[in-house]
Amino acid sequence: MKAISEPRRRAILRLIWDDEMSAGQIADSFEVTFGAVSQHLKVLRDAGLVVVRKDGTKRYYRADRAGMGPLASYLESMWVSSLDTLAALAEEAQREEAQRDKAQREKEAEP
User: Where is the segment annotated Disordered (predicted)?
Assistant: First the structure.
């Protein structure tokens, strides 16, 4: 699907997957302009991936999981897989740091 082929749009979807956010809040989460976020949201909205709720002058966006059908499951599994990989990398880095610290302490303890 072309709407999610752009990494920034996938990141926006992830951001509003569980929570409703205004375009300004979304823009603040990335280093892009409000206008760029607005364009991404329009593409996502036109593709039926995002719903909008108006409240006064503000608009709040959230992912339309029900409207996505099987795509919602695919995106969730992709994000979970990415988080699992990130967690494994963080754990490995922590183990390596602990080994370096232990080696440093042993070296400092030598007479």
Answer: 92-111
The reply to whether 57 and 77 lie within a common domain is no
pTM of the model: 0.61
Structure tokens that stand for 98 in this block: 């602990």
Phi, psi of 54 (to 5 degrees): -90, 135
Name the residue with tokens 């995106």: 75
Number of domains in the chain: 2
Confidence of residue 1 (pLDDT cuts 50, 70, 90): low
Where in the chain does DSSP place strands (E)?
Answer: 21-22, 50-55, 58-63
Cα separation, 17 vs 83, whole angstroms: 15
